[in-house]
């Protein structure tokens, strides 16, 4: 006889938070994630606490609450470093980079994207490494480092396993350019 999976109160709150987030109800989602975080902390589930902090950071970024976003994401990153969870550390770094970019703090954004891309490479996540390099390349390009930005963007584009339609088109244009220019 199969055992029924027991869902904890924290997990219920987390799922409710995700549903609310997907519906665009950000304040309600943040409340559920905060409640879930408390329950996860009580249960000693540090990784899930970090995930809730990361989720709160993403919500605060969407709301334009930059300092709150930075605080949540930095706390999540520190937690993931402490528990040696490199995939989640990389994800939180990527989210931090997005906040820095929104604040026009390009140097900090690029450092965070670079660190995230390196971690994604170390753990073998080519898709996220490529996506991160693409974001890094766009930032470099916008800050006037066009050649370096284009090279980084192209490197990311070459790594991405599931390119978007626009990325596939850009790949095709690069192939054509290479054939024409030799």
Compact summary:
With 182 residues, the chain is an all-alpha fold. Helices cover 81% and strands 0% of the residues.
Structure report:
- The chain is mainly alpha-helical and 182 residues long.
- The chain folds into two domains: 10-84, Serine Threonine Protein Phosphatase 5, Tetratricopeptide repeat, CATH 1.25.40.10; 111-182.
- The protein contains nine helices and no strands.
- It has helices at 9-22, 26-42, 46-62, 66-82, 86-102, 106-123, 126-142, 146-159, 165-181.
- Helix 2 (26-42) runs antiparallel to helix 3 (46-62).
- The longest helix has 18 residues, at 106-123.
- The chain is elongated, with a radius of gyration of 19 Å.
- The mean pLDDT is 92.
Question: Which terms summarize this structure?
Answer:
0% strand, single chain, mainly alpha, 9 helices, 182 residues, Serine Threonine Protein Phosphatase 5, Tetratricopeptide repeat
What is the CATH first-level class name of the largest domain?
Mainly Alpha
Largest sheet: none
Q: What's the pLDDT, averaged over the residues?
A: 92
Q: Classify the helix fraction into a percent range.
A: over 70%
Strand content: under 5%
Strand elements, count: 0
CATH third-tier fold name of the largest domain: Serine Threonine Protein Phosphatase 5, Tetratricopeptide repeat
Shape: elongated
Terminal CA distance? 66 Å
**How many domains would you count in the coordinates?**
2
Q: Provide the low-confidence segments as ranges.
A: none
Provide the CATH superfamily of the largest domain.
Tetratricopeptide repeat domain
H/E element order = HHHHHHHHH
Rg (CA only): 19 Å
Structural class of the secondary structure composition? mainly alpha
Number of H/I helices: 9
CATH architectural label of the largest domain? Alpha Horseshoe
